[in-house]
């Protein structure tokens, strides 16, 4: 079961780190991603990392501020979020998809989802 941790509340300009793991299934072979959904908005892709070559991608909103990484030995996906803005406030979801090639920020590509963790950035 995919599970996220590390959400919380922070002031604008601050930093937070999120983690995701699956206690039952290995992430081996899976492309992993972070998505977020703010109240009244659609779920959007934040960042992803491909299984095949480890290449990453970011949405324009977070590029340069967020860093995605995966720890193969710990079966963990991480997201380091710096210079947070109030617009980053959302529920953040970890997702795993079994597909090759480049990673994707499209939710339909992913098969397994966590329950989400709340990130709140105050101004």
**DSSP E strands, number:** 11
Which value, in Å, is the CA radius of gyration?
13 Å
SSE succession: EEEEEEEEEEE
Low-confidence spans: none
Global mean pLDDT: 95
Q: Which structural category do the helix and sheet elements fall into?
A: mainly beta
- Main sheet overview: 7 strands, mixed
Helix proportion: under 10%
- Number of separate helices: 0
General form: globular
Strand content: over 45%
Entry keywords:
single chain; 123 residues; mainly beta; seven-stranded mixed sheet; four-stranded antiparallel sheet; 0% helix; globular
Written overview of the protein:
The structure is a single chain. The chain is mainly β and 123 residues long. Helix content is 0%, strand content 48%. It is built from no helices and eleven strands. It has strands at 2-5, 8-11, 16-22, 31-37, 44-49, 56-58, 66-71, 76-81, 90-97, 112-113, 117-122. The strands form two sheets. Strands 2, 4, 5, 6, 9, 10 and 11 form a seven-stranded mixed beta sheet that branches. A four-stranded antiparallel beta sheet has the order 1-3-8-7, with no helix packed on it. A hairpin with a 6-residue loop joins β5 and β6 (56-58). The protein is globular, with a radius of gyration of 13 Å.
Please outline what is shown here.
By secondary structure, the chain is mainly β.
